[in-house]
Amino acid sequence: MSPQIDPITRSVVQHRLSSIVKEMGEAMLRTSYSQILNSSRDFSLGICDTSGRLIAQADHIPVHVGALPWATLAVEARFKEIRPGDVILLNDPYHGGSHLPDLTAFVPIFDRERRLLWTIVRAHQSDIGGATHGGYNPAATEIFQEGLRVPPIKLYEGGRLRDDLLDLLALNIRNPREFRGDLAAMVGAAHLGERRLSRLFSEFGAPVVEAAVETILDAAEAQTRAVVSTWKDGVFHGEAFLDDDGHGRSDIRIAAKVTKSGSDIEVDLSESDPQSTSFVNSSHANMQAAVVMAFAYLIDAEIPKNAGALRPLKVVAKQGTIVWADPGRPVTLCTSHPSNEIVEAIIKAMSASCPDRAMAGWGRRFRIAIQGEDPRSGRNFIWHLFQARPGGGASSGGDGWSSIGEWHTVGGIKFGSIEVAEVRFPLHFRHHEFRAGSGGDGQFRGGLGVALDLVLETAKPALANTAGDGARHGPCGMLGGEDGVPHDYRLISEGRAPRVLKTKEVGIEIRPNDCLEIRSSGGGGWGPPARRSSAARQRDREQGLTQGVAATGQDWR
Amino acid sequence: MTFTIGVDVGGTYTDLVAIDESGKAVFAKSPSTPLDQSVGVMAGLDELARRLKLTRADMLGRTDRVVHGTTVATNALLERKGADVALLTTEGHRDVIEMREGLKGDRYDLRSPPPEPLVPRQRRFGVKERLKPSGDIVTPLDDRSLGDAIDAIRSSNARSVAVCFLHSYLDPVHEITAVERLARELPELSISRSSDVLPQIKEYERVSTTIVNAYVGPLVRHYLANLERRLKEAGFKGNLFIILSHGGMAPVEEASRLAAGTVLSGPAGGVSGARRCADLLGIPDLVPFDMGGTSTDISLVAEGRASLSADGMLAGQRIALRSLDIVSIAAGGGSIASVDSGRTLRVGPESAGSVPGPACYGNGGAAATVTDANVVLGYLDATAFMGGQRPLDSTAAEAAVDRVAASLGLSRLQAAAGITRMINLKMADGIRLMTLRRGVDPRRLALLSFGGAAGLHAAEVARELEIKRIIVPTAASVLSAWGMLTSDLRYEVSRTHYGAGARISTDEVRALFAQLEQQAAGRLRSWFDGPMTIERSAEMRYGEQIFEIDVALDDLDWNATSLVDQIEDRFHRCHEELYTYASRDQEVVFVNARVAAVGEVSRRGQDLRPAPSAHACTPRTTRQAFFGAWREVPVYALDALQPGHAFEGPAIVEAETTTVIIDAGDRVTVNGLGWLDIALG
């Protein structure tokens, strides 16, 4: 029989669990090597139990979190015997992972002989081998062209590092030194969680902690059901579109049918379009995570995002569709696309059920990676675009945030200093300001995207790849609000016609002193534009936020 | 007889301490006057003089130094009551502050609107000018564009302007030209220049800090000028020094120039006090734990030093000046207990403040607060609160706690104990962040408990962290004001090194530091002619990293040819200590050089006398309080305790403005200073 848990013990254990994952996150941030982790913070932490239930998570990258239970289940399914001191790794989207760049480390937590929990660290690697640097390969037609596949493997066995295995992994990756440093940081953070959980067990006794966890999950479920039951019942439909797959198909549809009844929600994505030949497919775990993300955005921010909060949610999808690809298909883009479209389709559907909670569309991801030689040092460089963040969607709470990110990151990615970028890379950021007029109009206006004029200051031509979406479809307006203005990236090269960049290209030549005119999308507007207050319009005018899509910043007068 | 006087203006009370030549200290507390803090300061000086049995004029006439911690800048930021600021910046880069590098706080709150920046976009003006990251000028400062911007500033009605151009940390020439013309054409305007405020790479930090400086500057200057005048009129002829966020002090003129450096002026005094305690007690590693009515300030003294960091953020504004590492948590005596829809007990962050205050204040507050829980548990003597000047309504406290108990299905006592448990956990969490986050194990540290409310919670907070020792100074409730009198004068400068990817050379290091030292020492000399020391440090990282480590460079052989090797070696060792590994095969990037000139002022004060061997003492009285069960426990008067006295918990120690809970099994010894030294059982 499990011990009785009083509300104070429950509060204490809940608080502890959440401070443990936060502390793991601090350790990751400060010890990791690669820019994508220590600057852009593309990692997440969680604690799951042995049945894959998410017990606690730190607020980092929402699209990671809902996928961790599936990864845990894959680990549990693979190994009969798990011992103290084991560390398990995986990344393969067909073995519990989301996409190859997201590598996940698991440390099992024991109370004496009994195995109870996992501490989990998921981090986006700056490279994972494969055909292109940085993991995104728009040309891929099968997963083998996307990078190194890692099913659940034991990196440590009983506390002993299998360094032969580590050598194998590092050998397949372009920047092995960074990879080893990042991996050490991941394992270290998971071990830090282990240490703190062990102390929690010794203080309260594992049975008390286990029983407290049940009440924590039950409480989150009760909170969530209390919220959901206030929404209108019915069957609701929403859809969103990918621009294209880069392999000839365009307007790929993601369809959500949401059935809301009492305090239960079923999300059915079965009517979404068939899968693609390119990397715009979603893996199963990522599709699950995207649905969780949409749900998490609709309920209250303060409800703990754990397995209890997700109990009212049921997910239905069909294998072979764009949201759940057959084994072997490429999927690298999925954490951004179609994740963003899945979220948007669900929230559109729910706007008929809980209109005050349904926020307008957030930006899409459109990345550029440039490889070239820095004439100042003669060294090769690889630069990833994190500047020119798109705008966030407006909501019943007010205008959207400007320069803030996509549905799947929502302000969790940092773009860093332009001065530092100019010191480190042969780039000149001539202009980097809000893109006037890019936010969707509405009672509340969408956040603004950014206008970036970026001049390449190399001595020799450089090469660029793109990976993203949203150059045709802007983030959706909600409840009468207008869509945000889509992305518009151009390459301006003297003596050549301006060239509009596609969202999925490889091998783009950029010559010295060429300028990339990057215009990122604004967020969607919320509510009819006619309801926007004259004070808000006046303010927009004074601030130069709405007067046409300005190409440069000469608009302050 | 001459005095030095410390004045700490807090949210509720203004604390004052006067120390005479013999080291004898006298304390006073007086209500703060938020509208014009100098009114409360002068009233406090009256009270202090009364306690010294002198007239105010007589006391001030004999005072050679007043050291002051002010919350004028802090409050201006928290309450958004600063000046209307305009920003002059590089064309094409007006939105840096509003972009916040793309970050947003609460990840799952997608329905809160974005924060309002301190400078709205219509007051952010671009001018044609541009430097390269090498410091070379690509676009010379355009006169016409500058003139247009100045016209626009004039018609914007801004009272203060921040000037921040890209890469100005390398060469301030354009900023200086712009500032000179601004000063000529708009002489009434207050001006903050980024290459003066924070000459460092990373534009978001630099522009945000400069804007904060411009925002709080006029208020801080006005207040300090006022205070200086009032003091002078009241007969004060000595020096007025202001505590800065880095814990050092500076004359009024410097605090006015770098007003953004005063945002932690208040709590910084507590850290100085803690450092002095560490020194007096010979306990080099302490966790200063300062709990008041609405917030708790936590810091760290390690090896006798308080750490400085440039990660500061206040009221949503990034302030990248080096400041004491202080974690402020919304947890205090006034923190409100509530029960959410999941029937989970929450305490804070909302606070009842001083108006209406906890239910037991009887000022109309209905919500149960931490103070109410302490009354219910018998820890606070309702009749003797604030020396009996402000008796508490224990019936109101019980009724408020009962409401929380009812929604949790618990007894009154269980709810009250739950409320204190939750607030203690929150504060313990703050200490964990302050220590474990920096790789310091809290278990080997002593907790220094001060501020009005800390004594009630220190024991349980310490137990939560497995801390074994708590120190409670006799000046606990005014420790910040006392601590200010132990601060040194301090002037800091820093500069970014531009290496273009190449390793810094010995000559470059020497030249960089020589220049900074000259600047720092020159400034300090203009304030002070006593003994001066120079502190040097460098911020470095491995090539791929983003977080620099500030490495102290004292005791290096600056003439050695291996200077750069020595510096890099220190970095590797620091990295290993902090993060468990060093990568000696990797390139080390030298980012910022830092120099502080420190002027040591004469210190008066107590010395730790050896305490006589422990002997028992008699409690003043006994009363019922909850220590796991209701017990009749002894109550000791802090004033009556003598060095060498010793007793065991459960017990309560009371002073005029603070109460200390001693748990069962814990043992108190009164040390040579008359302070409580508590060993946890």
Write a brief structural summary.
Chain A is of the alpha+beta class and 557 residues long. Chain A has eleven helices and 20 strands. In chain A, 27% of the residues lie in helices and 22% in strands.
What does this structure look like?
The complex is a heterodimer of chains A (557) and B (681). Chain A has eleven helices and 20 strands. Chain A has helices spanning 7-31, 35-38, 62-65, 68-78, 163-171, 176-204, 206-228, 284-298, 339-350, 418-424, 534-542, and strands spanning 43-49, 54-57, 87-90, 102-111, 114-124, 153-157, 160-161, 234-244, 250-261, 264-268, 313-316, 366-373, 380-384, 427-434, 450-456, 462-468, 488-492, 499-500, 508-510, 515-519. The termini of chain A are far apart. In chain A, a hairpin with a 4-residue loop joins strand 1 (43-49) and strand 2 (54-57). Chain A has a seven-stranded antiparallel beta sheet, with helices on both faces. A five-stranded antiparallel beta sheet of chain A has the order 14-15-20-17-18. A four-stranded mixed beta sheet of chain A has the order 8-9-10-11, with helices on one face. In chain B, the strands form ten sheets. Chain B has a nine-stranded mixed beta sheet with strand order 21-14-13-24-25-37-36-33-30, sandwiched between helices. Chain B has a six-stranded mixed beta sheet with strand order 3-2-1-4-11-12. A four-stranded parallel beta sheet of chain B has the order 6-5-9-10, with helices on both faces. In chain B, helix 11 (370-376) crosses helix 12, helix 12 packs across helix 13 and helix 13 (412-435) packs across helix 14. The two termini of chain B are 45 Å apart. Chains A and B meet through helix 1, helix 6, helix 7, helix 10 and strand 14 of A and strand 6, helix 8 and helix 13 of B.
Span from first to last CA of chain B?
45 Å
Largest interface: A-B, 91 and 76 residues
Broad structural category of chain A: alpha+beta
Largest sheet of chain B: 9 strands, mixed
Radius of gyration of chain A equals 23 Å
The number of strands of chain A is 20
The share of residues in extended strands of chain B comes to 25-35%
Helix tally of chain A equals 11
Radius of gyration of chain B: 26 Å
Number of strands of chain B: 37
Query: What are the segments of chain B in which pLDDT stays under 50 over at least 5 consecutive residues?
Result: none
- Strand neighbour order, sheet with most strands of chain A: 2-1-5-4-3-6-7
Overall shape of chain A: globular
Supply the helix-strand structural class of chain B: alpha/beta
Nearest-integer average pLDDT of chain B: 89
| Cα-to-Cα separation, first versus last residue of chain A | 73 Å
Mean pLDDT of chain A: 92
Q: Approximately how much helix is present in the residues of chain B?
A: 25-40%
Strand order of the largest sheet of chain B: 21-14-13-24-25-37-36-33-30
Largest sheet of chain A, described in full? 7 strands, antiparallel
